[in-house]
């Protein structure tokens, strides 16, 4: 078991960069030629090129979203972004086979060590493609599939094509269309009926290049009665120019299955993190999104669950920390589409300095369904007078046999609390960290031990410069 005493967290852990020679480069800017180049490099079938071209067409026609953080989004220059960079290697099955510059990156981030300690499998993506992908041999014997999306498409088309693009259509929003046009990398996971993974699978997404856009696409299918926990981590070096991360994640929980999807992001503050994540939960299935958002210039992320089957359950637990010059625009979407479905949303945000946090929630329960329940709690903590928070809940509930409860609160760390703790030997920064960790402690406990300790330390580091 990991203990606090031997865990060292570095806030600048991901802020380093290695010069890399790329074998494949789609150039700068988005065009039909760039999309065709990506498809040719990946040796895709004609239907996939058609899928990409449709995505490009929709992206070009759709306006920038106006109900989102329009002012920040206007700062994205799609013409200077590099949409595909790869060294050309296939994902290695041992760390020794990974090219030295990439291996050095992931060793510095501690990924091989995490795999040895507590993971059932790891995929590590470097810019546009996976550099390493491996899971334990006994899982492969049980029929578990854990590969990159490129391998999933080529080697398991009968499963991949059935669900690909079905949970999140290309036309869902401007950035899902962009992802459809230029996606590369991401994970494809299939858990056979009745197989329950005791250890988590993990993917780590690393941006290394400047002016780069990372567009991974992840598809996870948990067959009947199966269970899986999937964790993802994200970092990028700090550049003067903007970096774009626009992923699409589709989860399918078939009857009685359970999926737990855990994200801990610590992007540098030049990253626009604009992702679309959604799950489909069939009868008596359960999907849990556990989400921690620290860093980035702007994050817009609203994990959702479509509760399609009777007694399906969806849950989103999220933490967002917005520091100076950052906007965390996060929330959840719950669509009840069957009787006796249950959803739970608990969101906590912390705003520091001139940081801004926003909660956007969507809950829909049509009147012809019965005995559906939703609970939503969104709590915000302001550290000083310049920090900001907003709440935008949208709840539509019909029918007399459904129930919804919504609670929201905004609080501020009081001078009395800080004074009380200072009288007991703490300095102001330590007192502030204790208040913030106490505010999010009930959610941090939902993360695996290895992540929960890291989160507490990371919050401590974020609070160091917040006092005064």
Core attributes:
single chain, 468 residues, alpha/beta, 2 domains, 13-stranded mixed sheet, 10-stranded mixed sheet, 12 helices, 25 strands, 25% helix, 35% strand, disordered N terminus
Description:
The protein has helices at 32-41, 46-61, 70-73, 100-108, 111-118, 137-141, 149-155, 157-163, 174-182, 415-422, 428-444, 449-463, and strands at residues 24-25, 85-86, 121-126, 129-135, 145-148, 187-191, 201-206, 213-214, 217-222, 227-235, 243-245, 248-253, 258-267, 271-274, 276-281, 286-295, 298-301, 304-307, 313-322, 327-336, 342-351, 356-365, 373-382, 388-397, 403-412. With 468 residues, it is of the alpha/beta class. It folds into two domains: 13-413, no CATH class; 414-468, no CATH class. The radius of gyration is 22 Å and the shape is globular. Residues 1-18 have low confidence and may be disordered.
Can you give me a brief rundown of this structure?
This protein has 468 residues and is an alpha/beta fold.
Structural class: alpha/beta
User: What is the total number of structural domains?
Assistant: 2
The residue ranges in which pLDDT falls below 50 over 5 or more consecutive positions are 1-18
Strand content: 35-45%
Main β sheet profile:
13 strands, mixed
Question: Roughly how many Å apart are the termini?
Answer: 37 Å
**Tally of helical segments:** 12
What does the radius of gyration come to?
22 Å
**Number of DSSP-assigned strands:** 25
Overall outline:
globular
Report helical residue fraction. Answer: 10-25%
């Amino acid at each position: 078991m990991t203990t606090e005493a031997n865990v060292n967290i570095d806030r600048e852990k991901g802020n380093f960069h290695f010069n890399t020679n790329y074998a494949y480069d789609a150039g700068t800017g988005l065009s039909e030629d760039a999309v065709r180049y990506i498809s040719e490099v990946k040796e895709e079938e004609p239907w996939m090129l058609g899928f990409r071209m449709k995505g490009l067409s929709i992206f070009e026609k759709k306006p920038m979203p106006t109900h989102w953080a329009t002012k920040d989004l206007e700062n994205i220059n799609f013409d200077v972004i590099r949409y595909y960079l790869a060294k050309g290697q296939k994902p290695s099955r041992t760390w020794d086979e990974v090219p030295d510059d990439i291996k050095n990156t992931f060793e510095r981030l501690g990924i091989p060590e995490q795999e040895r300690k507590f993971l059932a499998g790891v995929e590590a993506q470097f810019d546009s493609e996976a550099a390493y992908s491996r899971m334990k041999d006994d899982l492969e014997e049980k029929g578990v599939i854990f590969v990159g999306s490129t391998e999933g498409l080529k080697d398991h088309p009968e499963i991949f094509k059935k669900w690909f693009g079905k949970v999140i259509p290309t036309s869902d929003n401007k950035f899902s269309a962009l992802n459809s046009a230029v996606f590369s990398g991401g994970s494809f996971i299939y858990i056979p009926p009745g197989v329950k993974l005791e250890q988590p699978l993990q993917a780590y997404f690393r941006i290394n290049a400047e002016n780069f856009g990372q567009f991974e696409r992840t598809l996870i299918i948990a067959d009947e009665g199966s269970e899986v926990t999937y964790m993802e981590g994200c970092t990028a070096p700090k550049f003067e120019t903007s970096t774009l991360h626009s992923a699409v994640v589709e989860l399918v929980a078939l009857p009685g299955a359970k999926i737990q999807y855990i994200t801990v992001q610590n992007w540098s503050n030049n990253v626009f993190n604009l992702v679309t994540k959604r799950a489909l939960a069939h009868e008596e299935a359960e999907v849990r999104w556990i989400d921690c958002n620290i860093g980035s210039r702007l994050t817009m992320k609203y994990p959702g669950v479509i509760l399609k089957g009777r007694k399906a359950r969806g849950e989103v637990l999220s933490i967002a920390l917005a520091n100076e010059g950052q906007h965390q625009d996060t929330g959840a979407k719950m669509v009840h589409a069957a009787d006796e479905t249950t959803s739970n949303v608990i969101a906590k945000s912390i705003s520091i300095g001139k940081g801004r946090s926003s909660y956007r929630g969507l809950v829909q329960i049509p009147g012809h369904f019965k005995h559906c329940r939703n609970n939503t709690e969104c709590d915000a903590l302001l550290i000083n007078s310049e920090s900001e928070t907003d709440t935008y809940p949208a709840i539509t509930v019909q029918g007399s046999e459904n129930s919804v409860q919504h609670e929201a609160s905004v609080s501020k760390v009081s001078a009395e609390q800080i004074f009380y703790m200072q009288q007991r030997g703490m300095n102001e920064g330590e007192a502030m960290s204790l208040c913030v960790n106490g505010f999010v402690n009930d959610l941090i406990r939902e993360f695996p031990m290895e992540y929960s300790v890291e989160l507490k330390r990371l919050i401590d580091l974020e609070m160091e410069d917040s006092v005064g």
